[in-house]
Amino acid sequence: IGDRAYVVTFRQVDPLYVVDLADPTQPAVLGELKIPGYSAYLHPVGDGLLVGIGRDADDDGRIRGFKASLFDVSDPADPREMDTWTLPDAESSVEWDHRAFLWWAPENLMIVPVWSWRSEVPSGAAVFKVTAEAGLDYQGLITHSTEDFTFSTDCYHEFDSEAVAEGWEIPLLLVCTPGQVGNPVGYGCETVPAAAARNWDIDVEALGIEVGDEDRIQLCWPQEPGDAERIERSLIIGNDIWTLSRSLLQSNDLDTLDRRARLTLPG
């Protein structure tokens, strides 16, 4: 940012370094801050403010869950952690995919996807108002739930199809024409051209329907609970927050976070 770099390393604690790059032949550390945990992604959120997204950890470096930090770097010699927000046994895809992070400067709004491997810990897109006065002001969690969806597909389908050779555990088989979507919500599918079906030990004739060479066969398995509902992207358009997961495109009210609409996506 300008002629300063902000760098994080992690072994047992998280040193945040402020580095002066004004003279590229003589970079110099201006200040540092050591705190438990680490930030895998840093993002400027206003004059002298920096957000860090990463993991919470104890003093021995043992990871405890997700952590968002707000740093005051207005004094490069004395960076400070102003505020934190943690979620136990959770992580964020922002750690390895910076495009999952959204900063909306007109509203000082930050949106970060969080996910937990424990069903009792909520997962979704965490929404924050971020200011120097209020710190990380948590607004709520946008979630995608497919619990109320019933199975549907526009393709011919068979559960535990006899067309699949013995020894293959394929719970769902679909036959889709070029104009059909397939990929039902809640399933992950492998697509096979109908012409190559025999290479996959699929007996097309056993299906009892006409299958053309341009058709495709999909071999589908149920996704793990929550996998289809992980939010991967967010976007603000007008007064709506749009979020995208593997199964849904959803809009929520920018002010109240109430759900407005959603579109089911093929899996």
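Second entry:
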Amino acid sequence: MSITVPEQQEGNAWWAKLEDHDFFDQYIGRQFDTGLILGDDIDVVSGATISSTGVALGVYQGRALLADELGESYPAPMEIVKFGIGEILLISGLIMTVLFRTFAVFRKRKWLRYITLTLGLGVLGFWLSRPLSLTNIVAWLIGSPPNLPNNLFLYILVLGVVGLVLLTGKNFYCFWLCPFSAVQEVTYRIGGQIGLKPKPKTYKFLRNIRFLLLWAALMLVFWFTNPSLAVFEPWGTLFSQVGGIDQWLLLILTITFSFFIFSPWCFYICPVGAFLDIVIKVRKGGISLWKKLKVFRVKRLAEDKA
């Protein structure tokens, strides 16, 4: 007996990893009224946590529809929000980053940034393989946030980073907590810190590529309502060792250039950094507009009194 999925919108490399680890075979022989709780009854495939969660949610929803059609009931899965070491370390990293960038006593010690970068590399990168991805962000934008009980880490990561940007107007993730940024800094130092830099006009043009890629990815996601179409960042391939030929090629090229150019992905390609930059600009624009409206209102009241 085997399970066949006729249609899916997951990335081919991630889906193949589920198949290679016999993830779907875990559902064979299960009773209709069993819990099928991910992490308890069903094992998560390491390096494909989001894909595993997506399949589990599909099973829950499909079973609910079937039960409704048959006029039967089944015990709804009682999932507990899982708060563990990963979440604690992530919160600690965010707090340290805010402290190191906010208070003068810490800002003077430039080496403190390497503490949070190391934390990000170890936890978000090699351990959990969960850096902040454009896919995580667009899932919220199209109204399909991940399942909370199995994805508390992503909730803290996305809402924490974006929330801090909205609250303070500063990006506390890029160059501070991003594991792929840490990798590029290591390779840059190994390469002798040559520091090749384009001319000012070329630099400005290259910096805008990020926004073009972000726009293209968002158009695809909104058009097809499929967050997985935004998956093209090379760090997923690096930390999970899963990816198609194009993703491996992009990773190799990025790492190669990072030996001679400081963080080429972060400066010229990263859609996450572009998105956070836009949020910062929108925040500044909103504050500026609010101040102008406030001044206009005061003048209007003064004129009315006169």
